[in-house]
Fold these 2 entries.
Entry 1:
Amino acid sequence: MLVTGAIGNAVLAVVVPVLTGDAFNAMLAPQPDTSVLLPLALTIGVSQVIRGVLQLGRNFGAELMAQKMERDIRDELYLSLLGKSMTFHNLQPVGDTMARATNDVREVNYMFSPGVNLVVGSFMFILMPLFFGPRYHPSLILTPLLFAVIYFAALAGYLKALSPVTDTARATFGQMNTHLSESLDGVEIMKGAAQEEAEVDRFVTNARKVRDAFVKQGDLEARYIAMLLLGLAFAGGLTHALFLLRAGLIDVGAVIGYFGMLQLLGFPTFTSTFAYSQISLGMSSARRILDLIQRETKLDQNASGLTSQIRGEIEFRNVSFRYPPPSPPIFGENGGRARGGYVLENISFKVKPGQTVALVGQTGAGKTTLVKLINRIYDATEGQVLVDGADVRDWNLAALRSQISIIEQDIFLFSRSLNDNIAFGKPGASKEEVVAASMAAQAHDFVLDFEDAYGTVVGERGVTLSGGQRQRIALARAFLTDPRILVLDDSTSAIDSATEDKIQRAIANASRGRTTFIITHRLSQIRWADLIIVLRKGRIAAIGSHDELMKTSEAYSRIFRE
Ligand code: GTP
Ligand code: MG
């Protein structure tokens, strides 16, 4: 469609100068014959109408293709991002990902329309004088041929120079976005530390880099010699045709027709100054998108793995773990250290279905890390984590994760209604179910205090939730999905005693009938756990029930004496 439209468009464009030349010939003849003028004019008119229709089809087709392409790329990118491991997401700045998912995808769209569309269309215009020029006199191929050769040579050089420049332009844009999203995320810290000015300076520096990159691109575009070439072609072609005229080899109509044809070269010349940089930008963007999609996913979904209902037995067998290094490890002074960088070392314990486990330990001991191995946010570096006697890697990832709920240390709420936030893990849950879950989580009362109750949108009109409220929303979420294993990372929350009491009750409700891990500093919660694991610097310092540990562990009993 694109190519047919382009050829039709170009051929019909040639009709104008050729027939104009014929008209001149008819008038300049010894006995001018005006009767040919009307048919000529009509032919020109009709041909241009057809050309308009073809052009419309070409542009429409190109635009349709480009928009579809943009949608498909975006879908694909989003899917691939959701499938990536946490290691990937921890290393890849959100701002840069956003830049790729929005602007880079858009650049690929522009690359096809107008980019490729104009290039294909204008390419045909270069061929026209080559084909039809010699019609008047064979030697008239000279100018269009020279033009084409120099045009393409210059273009090759231009594209080569352009590619690194557009790469930089896209990369600096990603960096600026990264900085923007990070400073918006951390705006509270920034204001708290009165660092606005320093941050603004940093942003201006980044913005300047983006500007510089685009100015460089504009500079290259300006130096591109195609316009000069066009002027030379006009001058050379006309001189050549006039010589032929004087020598009596061609007539006036041919000079006019030929010069009109040379005018067609204006279109490719003009478009080439911006269409190719559009294509180059699109290619740079496509590379950035592909780079993101193709980056290793690490965690495999294991679609054919176990999918049965989890009973809730958990076993850690000699598990050691370290966070994957961001880049290939550098072997140097630290390279020789045998167990360097391990966050968890040689962890072994076993939990029966339905038991409640309290994980205690100082900050940085590895508590959060340990629970992330259960639902495969990360995989153990050494040893095995088993659920119901099967290695977690043998479970179907979706089946495993859908039966394990982790309520994280800092609870994330989506900018949606409270109802949708609670029903997140079970879309389509009825109003009654949501309210029941919220009651069990002791969230119902404070939700009703909001003007719109369950319809209250988080983040809208200044609605924010306190730490304790967030926690109870997250608990309600867990009640609704009814996981077989519940993990509650509660180690940093400091809450007043009235709320504490409520949360206590909510957690007691939640832990009933399922295996529960609680990371906490609250002694009351530790006390009634079936199993207490004391972590110190990534190793198990003590393990057992409260009574056992009070007798055997000096470190543990010290916690209670203080
Ligand atoms: P608190 O939540 O403060 O009580 O600590 P925690 O016991 O939950 O510690 P956590 O498991 O979060 O961290 C244990 C160690 O792992 C610390 O030394 C962290 O610096 C390190 N760590 C935690 N998360 C990451 C991560 O995403 N990447 C890397 N490379 N290290 C991490
Ligand atoms: Mg933690």
Note: The first strand starts at residue 314 and ends at 321.
Entry 2:
Amino acid sequence: MTTDRPADSAGFATRAIHAGQAPDPTTGAVVPPIYATSTYAQDGVGGLRNGYEYSRSGNPTRTALEECLASLEGGSHGFAFASGLAAEDTVLRALCRSGDHLVVPHDAYGGTFRLFDRVHAQWGITATPVDLTDLAAVEAAIQPGKTTMLWLETPTNPLLAIADIAALAELAGWHGITTVVDNTFASPYLQQPLALGADVVVHSTTKYCGGHSDVVGGAVVVGDAELADKVRFHQNAMGAVAGPFDAWLVLRGLKTLALRMERHSDNAEAIARFLAEHPSVSETIYPGLTSHSGHDVARRQMRRFGGMVSFRVAAGEQAAVELCARTKVFTLGESLGGVESLIEHPGRMTHASVAGTALEVPADLVRLSVGIEEVNDLLEDLDQALGTTGSVR
Ligand code: P1T
């Protein structure tokens, strides 16, 4: 299978559609086939065709996705995994050793923090949660000779804090620390951490990359051959790879990423403006609002502000929980980044695992994953769920 990449100078949408996806040389199929095979015939012992030996080590559908992801993130090598957490776990095991210390966000995705706090901690890797918007606090948390990794998530889940990737990567560089960025919320269309100085990008491709809530997947992209060798070795040795059908679904999703992110951003901007004016909402959190403390950094490092909006309900926790059950177009559910709008209560759902830790989220918080439906239908739905009678049209 040919996996030519279009020129790096080609535009994002062109690379999303063509990188790693040249027509199949045998049939001309314009879409990479789903190679549902575990193994490959060898032409004599060790006579591999295009390097394919066994599908944990490599599969042509996965290769297509990995090349496309590398191109979209401006990296040299991409790796596709069975989930976002599998991708993160592989990075941690590939790059950290017992005794290492990590500086991590104090408001990361709950499952990411659980991975640090309850899985890797058992193997002697410690993590200090820090407010990444406070550079002095990050510097103070670095333990010289012990801290080996700075883990960023920006925007964060669910509080949408913005970390200054360039400034933090520079700080990490002075200390010889590897910078990892979870780019799930922004997607490679809105933000490219490697170009800002980060060493490693991770994704839950379950979200915007896949884009249709029909697959669970993860990715790692690096821009350096030495890091790539370590990740490749652990991807194969640990084996949490994306299967061919899952790889194909993510690859199909990526083709429309640019269009979808524009529409997610349009809709989310309108919803954030609406919520910011609403009397039942005590705080609207969206990096695109000038009131957001990270707005200027977000403007610098993101193309637009994305599809995630969080807000606090003035009447408190119970009102927030009940609101989540009243929407009709927004579906009550975990996850994000799909074409359909979702609503959830992070304190009781996605972030229940961090209750009682430094990462506990406000009880009156509601998170929206704004989809690509007609914006007026979304506004009307929120208006009725918030309990007002005025029309928004
Ligand atoms: O669910 P999985 O594909 O394993 O990805 C984990 C993950 C990693 N990073 C971020 C920023 C995430 O948001 C997630 C998963 N998040 C949810 C399921 C959620 O509803 O927030």
Note: Residues 389-393 have pLDDT under 50 and may be disordered.
